[in-house]
Amino acid sequence: MSHRRCLAAFVAVVALIPVASAQAGTFPGEVIDGPSADILSVGGVDVAAKDGTGGVTYLRNEGGVPHVFVSRVVDGTWQRPERIDGAFGSAASEPVIAAGTDGLLVVAWITDTTLYTSVKPSSAGVWTAPQAVGGPARFPAIDMGYNDNAYLAWSSAGDIAAARLGRGRTQFAAVNGPLDLDPAHSAGTQANLRPSVAVSAEGLALFTWGELFGDGRTHVVARRVFGLDPSPVPQDLNLDALEGRPGGDADGPVATIQSDSSFGWVAFRQAFTDAGAVRLRGVARQMRGSIFQAPSTIDGQTWPGQDVGLPALKLSGGGNGFAAIPLADGTLIGDSVAPSGLHEQEAFNPNTIRLDSAPVAQPSPPTAAYTEDKTGLVAWPSSDNQLRMRRINGTEFQPEAMISNPDLGPVDFSAGVAAAGDRYLDAAVVAIQGTGDARRLVAAMLVKEPGGFSPRSSSQWYSTLPARLTWREPTHTWGTLTYTVEIDGRPVGTTTKTSYPTAGLVLDAGTHLYRIIATDQRGQTSATPTRFLRVDDDPPNVSITVAGSRTHGGTTTVVARVIDTRSGSAIPTISFGDGTSVQARTARHVYGRKGLYTITVRAADRAGNTTVARRTLRVR
User: Which of 62, 115, 187, 528 has its Cα between 20 and 30 A from that of 141?
Assistant: First the structure.
């Protein structure tokens, strides 16, 4: 028999699947600002690993003067741009940005040769007034660690200076002394010698830069900083020789570090003389403790080879990562590294891979991001002036894909390209597209689909209905999810909350199928497995039969017949009316006295519906 009843459902609980197995959609050409000829150049983009908040900083003319703007990304959506250097009328240059938890943003830039910073402490906070950190300044670099400690480096009158922003602070403090190996040397004075900094989860920093030594050659130098104190021994990373070829100038250093600050890498390029010809090769060296290990080549070449451009290098907190480096003919080479044993020398994979399908006439440095779930991306200019990309999962590069929208015009690679992502590779690759009045600041958004989740699997029957169907939120950083409750293949309602009221929904008693579908703001979905939903609101039918003796001292047989055609019944309880009872379907009993007794049978089905039946028995 069918009854119209309100929807009964289980309480759904999310079961997370491994993040690396989830898919991420690519959404090119999301416009952050424009169209306008006043959009000048990209400074940088950063996304917090923990929660996906972040922002992009860029230069835009205001009143004909370049100024610093920031657009924040909140729930995967770009917010209205804000001018950060409003206290100044002079032109700004070289903005950089770092992102931390809960909307924390730090922006640094140069106005009138002075390096300034401004901090937004949280999504709800306001930007601090600009703080003068140092000067004269050029080529700033910034990074923020997993636990919201930030370091800033810059070139100042031929020295490398640095400052630290402690967790929860809004003012930078100067790192003690210049970082140079020798303050008498000229350090970081050109773009290809500019400093790079990477911050560990512990809040320690690895710095690297190019420095002109007394031998007349440029050298790559690396140094760690603990709090405000540089390590006592900066290290010269130049190679005296590579495979028997004498080493020369080195430049283009980039640093990355693991969560454990004892481990990191620096990649750079260095000149070597081979049979009288000078060749630029791509090199990476691992830091283990305070010592840099033997080099790995990252350009996939044998001698004589061809010159290389500036490398990109990214590493996860656990030690997985990759390098990418362009060759002179416009092709792009990728190489990966994975952590080895504690006492083993680590090296990049000797089997490099070509990343691009067609070389470009003017190769430029690739743009890269890498995340804590061992996934990353590398993007580069294509021959048609668009952006192309390959993802990397672990150490495996995925197929090439276009990530810019050709309808928006050519990408202006001279204006900068930047990439960053959270720990799940929700990522943004930011560039400027179009010409003249059609220039736009745009982002290719890589957004992981909602993570897997599952209702509690059970074959239990229900009779009383819970007020709400509830679940935890699937793993998802960017954007509000919409949940659809589906019963027997039919959507019955949607919500943006992690519960859904069942009032007003009707369902026939019996066995049904249900699932919940999560949809993100870009239309990507994830669904729970389909599960049974069993509803039984009919109590069992019970009859009582008495047989045998009806005199005291004799044996009386009581038979309880229980029928439940839907969920089935449990063994009933038979009460004989004389203070004794037994759990059975058939029971024998001896009454010790004459009298009138009420036999009671209490029966329940598997849904919890209960029937009580009674029969009077006279015992003589």
Answer: 62
Most confident range, picked from 6-10, 134-138, 379-383, 445-449: 134-138
Q: What mean pLDDT comes out for the span 253-257? A: 97
pTM: 0.85
d(CA 495, CA 485): 9
Q: Helix, strand or coil for residue 414? A: helix
Q: Which domains can be identified in the chain, with CATH numbers?
A: 4-15+451-535 (2.60.40.10), 40-298+405-448 (2.130.10), 541-619 (2.60.40.10)
At residue 413, the 3 state secondary structure works out as helix
How far is the CA of 337 from the CAs of 132, 265, 318, 368, 396, in angstroms?
Answer: 39, 10, 11, 15, 10
Number of residues that this document lists for the chain = 620
Binned at pLDDT 50, 70 and 90, residue 404 comes out as very high
- Print the SS3 string covering 505-567: CEEECEEEEEEEEEECCCCCEEECCCEEEEECCCCCEEEEEEEECCCCCCEEEEEEEEECCCC
Residues pairing with 517 in the sheet: 484, 527
The residue written with tokens 């609101």 in the block is: 537
- Closest listed residue to residue 443, CA positions, set 42, 82, 37, 11: 42
* Band (479; pLDDT cuts 50, 70, 90): confident
CB atoms within 10 A of CB 1: 7
Residue pair 130/116 in contact by the 8 Å Cβ criterion: yes
Residue 340 binned pLDDT confidence (cut-offs 50, 70, 90): confident
**428 in Cβ contact with 421 (< 8 Å):** yes
DSSP string, 126-168: -PPPPEEEESS-EEEEEEE-TTS-EEEEEEETTEEEEEEE-TT
Instruction: Tell me the chain's radius of gyration from C-alpha atoms.
Output: 35
523 contact partners, CB below 8 Å, separation of at least 6: none
Return the higher-pLDDT residue of 223 and 10: 223
How high is the pLDDT of residue 58?
A: 98
3-state secondary structure (DSSP) of residue 504:
coil
Residue for token pair 């799940």: 424
Give the sign of the dihedral formed by CA 353, CA 357, CA 360, CA 364: negative
Residue 195 structure tokens:
């400093």
End-to-end Cα, the chain, rounded Å: 43
Place of tokens 């006279």: 618
CA-wise closest residue to 247 among 288, 285, 194? 285
The token pair that represents 586 in the structure block: 């058939």
